From TrEMBL:
Keywords associated with the record: Oxidoreductase
SMART domains (alphabetical): PKS_KR
Protein name: Ketoreductase domain-containing protein
Lineage of origin: Bacteria, Bacillati, Actinomycetota, Actinomycetes, Mycobacteriales
The organism's place on the tree of life at top rank: Bacteria
Residue span, Ketoreductase domain: 6-171
């Protein structure tokens, strides 16, 4: 009896870290469901990956600031007969103006994109993962999650939520064969700074602070496959995170798991 290849759903897949995840997983034989706003970029990437690796690659154009998007994505996967085994919640952005000067619609979109949508997508695919007793989820946090809050920015708080929620999910789901990892990269060579309009400032930062997407993704996939709840890729980022976070990750994870109020429920 032949077994269907596993399927990975990747958000923010049209460029940068998301596209790099797609390339790595396609090379490993995974079927892909690629999600982003830019349908043309998704189709181009899908055709390339299918041609290079012979894997099935579906695309779904969606704006994850739309509250209806997560349900629509999972409904599309169901219609295509795709069981989501790997979820990469990669889509993200950062605000460019002070909180009080930013229209509420923009702030609500930021929260929807990086808090509500990834949480809902996980909630929608986890039942299938539990049924199959296997699943992998990577949620894109940031090394900024270990830093003190930044003035006027929701970004640090959002990424802290992703970091903490991912560890909580991992504690709950690991007995079911599901690993959840918060990926906390630092400065990475992608289009992020171009989109945010911070390229000039970013280009003046020392080269030692930067990583290539391939290095980030390689470390992230190894971490989630090996059951590590937090992945801080790169030596410089590891040093930065350790210096900013008073409680070591392993100790904090142990305390959270030990005093879980639902462990006997």
């Amino acid at each position: 009896m032949t077994t269907s290849p596993r399927t990975a759903l990747i958000t923010g897949a049209s460029a940068g870290i998301g596209a790099t995840f797609a390339r790595h997983l396609a090379a490993s034989g995974y079927q892909l469901l690629l999600v982003a706003r830019r349908a043309d970029r998704l189709r181009e990437l899908a055709e390339q990956l299918t041609g290079d690796h012979g894997v099935r690659c579906e695309v779904f154009a969606a704006d994850l600031t739309d509250p209806a998007a997560p349900a629509a994505i999972v409904d599309f996967a169901d219609q295509q007969g795709l069981d989501i085994d790997v979820l990469i919640n990669n889509a993200g952005l950062s605000g460019k103006t002070a909180f009080a000067d930013t229209p509420w619609d923009a702030l609500a979109g930021e929260i929807q994109l990086m808090v509500t949508a990834p949480t809902e997508l996980a909630h929608r695919v986890i039942p299938g993962m539990k049924k199959r007793q296997w699943g992998r989820i990577i949620n894109l946090s940031s090394v900024a999650a270990f830093a003190p809050p930044g003035a006027s920015l929701l970004y640090t708080g959002i990424k802290s939520y992703v970091l903490n929620a991912s560890q909580s999910l991992d504690m709950e789901l690991k007995p079911h064969g599901i690993h959840v990892t918060a990926l906390c990269p630092g400065l990475t060579h992608t289009e992020f700074h171009d989109v945010m309009g911070t390229r000039d400032k970013a280009d003046h930062l020392p080269a030692i602070l930067w990583q290539q997407p391939d290095a980030v993704v390689t470390e992230a996939l190894a971490a989630v496959m090996n059951g590590k709840p937090v992945c801080v890729p790169g030596v410089v980022n590891k040093i930065s995170a350790a210096a900013m976070k008073p409680l070591p990750i392993r100790l904090g994870y142990f305390v959270g798991k030990t005093f879980n109020p639902f462990k006997n429920g």
